[in-house]
Every structure is written in C-alpha cells, then in structure tokens.
Design brief:
Blueprint (H helix, E strand, L loop, with lengths): L5 H51 L2 E2 L7 E2 L3 H8 L1 H21 L1 H12 L4 H13 L2 H12 L5 H8 L14 H26 L3 H9 L4 H29 L3 H6 L11 H11 L3 H30 L1
Antiparallel strand pairs: 1-2
C-alpha cells in the first residue's frame, strides 16, 4: 500500500508562506502606526500651511469676515508689480555674489587646512566660531563695521589713504556688503563639509601621487578637486536655495533699501502680508517662491541620488 504525503507538505508550505505574509503585514502596520504621529505633526506644520497658502493665493483674504474668490487676480497683480522684477533680480545678484565670495573661498581654505601638518584643529575652530554666533549679534557687529561715520572698515580705509564709503547706503556697495556678512556667518559650516569630503578621499591616491613625484598643486588638481566635485555641486545648489530665501540680513540692515536695491522676495512677502495686510497677494508671492525652491530642490535630490549611486 502506498501513502502519498506531497499534498500535506504543500499545504504546510503554503501555510508557512501565509503566516510569513501576515507577520510582515503586521510589521508594516506597526511601523506605520509608529510613523503616524510624526506624519501628522509634519503635515500640520508643513503641508497644511502650503495648502492654505495655495488657497489664499486665489482669494481676497479678510481676517474679519469671509474671504472672496478672485481667481488669478493676485498673480496678475504680482506680475505687474515693479517690485516683482526688482526682487528677483536682486535675488539673482545675491546668488551670483554668494557663489563668487562664499563658494570658492571655503574650498581653497579647506584644501589649505588639509595640507597642513600641524594646527588643523585650531584653524577649524577659528573658522567655525562665526557659525555659532546668533545672526542678530552678527548683524550688530557688522553694522558697527560698516558704519559710515565711525565704522571699523572705514577707519582702516582712511588709515591706508583711502576714502570712507557709505557701505549700507550706496546701491553699488550694499549687496556685496550683505553677501560678505553671509559668507562670514556661514563660512565655518561650509568649510567643515569640504574638510569632511577631503578626509574621505582614500589616502592611496595621495600616496600614488607622491610616488609619481607630484607636487602639492598637482595632487590638489588631479586628486582632491575631482573627488570634491559631487560635494561642490550639492553645496552650490544648497547655497543658491539659502540665498533665494534671504530675509534677516537685508531686513535688519537696510529694510530693503536703499532704493529697493536689497529688496528680496521674502522681504516683499513680509511687507505685503504684515504691513499692507494683503494676504492674498503675499500668498501669490509665496507660491512663486515655493515653485522656484521646488525646482532647485528637485535638482538637489537628483544630484544627491546620482552622487550616492
């Protein structure tokens, strides 16, 4: 007599498979339940304001009564507003100046510190100190430096035979003055990013370059800079994103002046919302800023993904 056990084994295997699937599904449910509070908080404080701003951008917002739907009127008003062109041109100028002053210099300093045999920790500390100073205190310090009457910078220029300048009142000088402040305040964090990237380069490359008799300049050009390229691109995009959102420095130093030469989109949003009480127009401005920042964010994510791969 022959006994067949294959169906029983098949049923047992199928049962184990179903048990595993149920276990995995229960694990996923548990993970989602743990994530739910964080997602709710994130949605409440991040996505809800964005959605509400999008709705406000199509309304004439009233804080005392119901808001009225105005369609694309706020966006039309934004586009014909002379400050729209001025603010975005200023942002582009700030971005270009920031790249010129705050992008190349940290790379050069990071490479120099990495080439040092001694005192690396000391110089890292010295360059990082401005980063830990609160921005309001930094602005007060630089206001004293830029003062047209008795500022430190003008005193130095006069001592070497130059003429005192109105750094915060001259439309030609005020943008570089603000970007210099920004570069000084954020220099330390950018420097540490580049130092970390440099120290992540395998030492075998430098050893091979030394065996070949390469000079320090050749080592930097052939080894350091090519390996820094992904970090440079990511830092570049993040720096542009940060500069486009600049507000505190022009607000506290110049209030957007002189002659709107330091007016930025975020400063315009502040004026429209809290000085003119035109929240619909301010929301339209905010949506234009969100779109621009989203484009840069997508670029950043793609570059970051390609770098990781």
């Amino acid at each position: 007599m022959t006994v067949t056990v294959e169906p029983v084994q098949g049923l047992a295997t199928e049962s184990r498979t179903k048990t595993k699937k149920r276990f995995r599904w229960s694990e996923q449910i548990s993970a989602y339940l743990f994530l739910l509070p964080a997602l709710l908080v994130f949605g409440l404080f991040a996505w809800y304001p964005i959605i509400q701003t999008f709705i406000f951008s199509f309304q004439k917002v009233s804080l005392n009564g119901p808001s009225t739907w105005v369609g694309w009127s706020n966006f039309n008003r934004m586009l014909i507003d002379p400050t729209f062109k001025t603010a975005w041109i200023n942002s582009i100028t700030f971005a270009l100046l920031s790249i010129a002053m705050g992008f190349v210099i940290p790379i050069a300093i990071a490479i120099m510190i990495n080439e040092m045999r001694r005192a690396k920790a000391f110089f890292r500390l010295v360059y990082f100190l401005p980063t830990v100073i609160p921005i309001t205190i930094s602005i007060l310090i630089w206001r004293l430096i830029y003062s047209a009457d008795n500022g430190v910078l003008n005193a130095f220029i006069v001592q070497i035979g130059g003429h005192a300048q109105s750094w915060l009142q001259d439309t030609r000088l005020v943008k570089p003055a603000i970007i210099l402040l920004l570069t000084w305040a954020n220099f330390g964090s950018t420097l540490l990013i580049y130092l970390a990237a440099i120290q992540d380069i395998p030492t075998e490359y430098y050893e091979a370059a030394e065996i070949e008799g390469a000079s320090p300049f050749v080592r930097i050009r052939a080894v350091t800079l090519p390996h820094l390229y992904p970090t440079m691109i990511i830092t570049f995009v993040l720096q542009v994103i940060a500069v486009v959102q600049i507000f505190t420095e022009p607000f506290l130093l110049t209030q957007g002046g002189p002659a709107n030469s330091t007016l930025t989109p975020v400063l315009v949003i502040y004026r429209k919302a809290f000085l003119d009480n035109d929240f619909g127009l301010a929301s339209a401005w905010s949506m234009s800023l969100i779109i621009i920042l989203s484009i840069f964010s997508i670029v950043y994510l793609r570059i970051s993904r390609n770098t990781d791969s």
